[in-house]
Design goal:
Blueprint (H helix, E strand, L loop, with lengths): L1 E9 L2 E7 L4 E6 L5 H11 L15 E10 L2 E10 L4 E5 L2 E2 L2 H8 L3 E4 L5 H4 L1 H11 L1 H30 L1 H21 L5 H13 L1 H36 L4 H30 L4 H21 L3 H19 L1 H47 L6 E13 L2 E10 L7 E2 H4 L2 H19 L3 E5 L7 H14 L4 E5 L3 H4 L4 E9 L4 E7 L2 H13 L5 H14 L1
């Protein structure tokens, strides 16, 4: 509940503090005195959006501080609105965002302003009332339905995207298949291009290479026998002395290696010479192959490795496109499964809501009867929506007949302003018990009512105040008389400024205030007596 509020430089309020109490708190005052400004200050503290227009003329900032109990813990909320547009929200001294403050304060109070009953005229709001009434049963199924609907919507979106791109995928498939086939038929191997370049250079210079190899071989052929004889004698001598020292043995071994290697080299020269065969056809084939590989490089990559990598990527993409029918079938199966699950969840929601609606109808009827709707009838109608939603497939609307013999009609088509005020009060009383909201605030709940109906509304407010803190602004003495704690809001004007004050009333002051509401400026013995009678009747 709300315990205290401090308001400084807010609209026409210079500086005031109000201690609220449990039970029914009534605020009265002349029209224009600033009653609704107090509620606006409370709304600001509870997370309403700030506006620099709230700042008192000539001041730098407006400050509202509210103290209340939330879940058994004292909470201090501070809002500052500066002329520069800076807006600060503090929760127990810590800076918080407006969204965080708003979410936190929903547990503290519910404010019903003069025009809030418009929400009750909107059928889209009615389903929430039914769901709240049996929220322990409905909420889990509702959450499951929302989760299923999210998955369903996602799967349908994927399928639509898949189908819309089917034609483009077909074109891509043909092109990628062509590219992949071109690379596959090339039968590339890494390093092949370097080998071809070397082979071409060899073939293009084969005649010259043959002559050089032949010259080398012929020169060796002429001098080799004699040289080999001399080297053989040297090897024999070194082999004989190798037994005497390790150093000479090493020299002998190295010379033997040279001797045998030289023989091998001479033989390699001869074989290389004999292998040189010039073929124009072979040269043309090698040049053609290298040109073909370079053409592929220009299209698919700078190296053979890059070309082969491109082929792997293209094959993977092609596989994905070729699997589109399988993916389509999987998505269709998923959608059908989700539709079955959504149907079951929606039907379960509808069944639970109808149970809730039946009980809620009886509860509302009882409340309306107590609020002087003796001949009223209320019906909560159900219609099926044409498609799934995250909220199920129900369209729910409250229908009412306020007079005997009249047909049931939507609230918007039958209820007057005064009737809507009472209907909203009935709903607030019922729903508050299930929302566990400790404080209900009513700004001019008395709009459009008077006489006996006003007294009935006052009695209902006092009844609600047995389990909730009620803060109510009213112009009607019949309602003010029921106040357990009464406050008078007054406006004072000077040459340079206007300011509003709020003061708590004792019993005598309460009588005088109600007398003022009854008779206006001139308070007489008759109005005093009438006020006393009203208060006595409210006990």
């Amino acid at each position: 509940m709300i315990n205290h509020i401090s308001i400084r430089d807010f609209a026409i309020i210079e500086n005031t503090e109000i201690d609220f109490h449990s039970g029914l708190n009534i605020l009265t005052g002349e029209t224009g005195a600033g009653k609704s400004i107090v509620i606006e200050a409370v709304s600001l503290a509870l997370g309403a959006r700030a506006d620099t227009a709230f700042i008192r003329s000539g001041c730098e900032k407006a400050v509202v501080q509210l103290t209340g109990d939330i879940d058994g813990e004292e909470t201090v909320i501070t809002r500052e609105v500066s002329s520069s547009g800076k807006n600060l929200c503090r929760l127990n001294g810590d800076l918080v965002t407006l969204a965080q403050l708003n979410a936190y304060c929903r547990k503290l109070a519910d404010i019903h302003g003069q025009y809030d009953h418009q929400s009750l005229l909107n059928p889209e709001y009615h389903i929430n009332l039914v769901d709240i009434y049996h929220q322990n049963d409905i909420a889990p199924v509702k959450q499951m339905n929302a989760k299923l609907f999210s998955a369903y919507k996602d799967a349908k979106s994927k399928l639509e995207s898949l189908l819309s791109s089917a034609a483009e995928n077909a074109r891509q498939r043909d092109f990628m298949a062509f590219e992949l086939n071109e690379i596959k038929e090339a039968k590339l191997t890494e390093g092949e291009d370097a080998e071809l370049e070397e082979r071409i250079a060899l073939l293009q210079n084969s005649e010259h290479i043959y002559k050089l190899l032949a010259r080398a071989y012929e020169a060796g052929k002429e001098s080799m026998p004699a040289a080999m004889d001399i080297m053989s004698e040297i090897q024999t001598a070194l082999s004989d002395i190798a037994l005497y020292t390790e150093e000479l043995g090493s020299i002998s071994s190295e010379f033997s290696d040279i001797f045998y290697r030289l023989d091998d080299i001479f033989r390699d020269i001869r074989n290389a010479r004999d292998s040189i065969i010039f073929s124009q056809e072979e040269l043309d084939e090698a040049i053609f192959r290298l040109e073909y590989i370079n053409k592929l490089k220009h299209k698919y990559g700078n190296t053979i490795a890059e070309i082969l990598g491109y082929a792997e990527q293209t094959a993977a993409k092609l596989q994905t496109i070729e699997n589109i029918d399988e993916e389509k079938a999987n998505l269709e199966f998923e959608i059908n499964t989700l539709e079955t699950q959504l149907t079951a969840a929606s039907e379960r929601l509808t069944a639970l809501r109808k149970v809730s609606a039946e009980e809620l109808e009886m509860k509302i009827s009882k409340e309306l009867s107590e609020l002087n709707f003796a001949d009223s009838r209320i019906k909560i109608s159900f219609d099926a929506l044409p498609a799934f939603t995250e909220n199920g497939t129900d369209r729910i609307e409250f229908l009412i007949s306020t007079n005997k013999g009249e047909p049931l009609k939507p609230l918007a088509k039958i209820a007057s302003g005064g009737e809507m005020s009472r209907i909203m009060l009935a709903f607030k009383n019922i729903i508050a018990d299930y929302d566990n909201i400790p404080t209900l605030i009513f700004d001019e709940i008395d709009a459009g009512i008077s006489g006996i109906t006003a007294s009935i509304v006052g009695k209902k407010l006092k009844e609600i105040a047995e389990n909730h803190q009620i803060i109510c602004i009213t112009h009607l003495p019949q309602i003010a008389a029921f106040g357990e704690h009464n406050y008078r809001i007054q406006k004072y004007s000077s040459e340079n400024s206007v300011k509003t004050t709020v003061e708590a009333l004792d019993e005598n002051e309460k009588i005088n205030e109600i007398a003022r509401l009854l008779g206006g400026i001139n308070i007489t013995d008759i109005t005093i007596k009438s006020a006393e009678e009203l208060i006595a009747a409210s006990k």
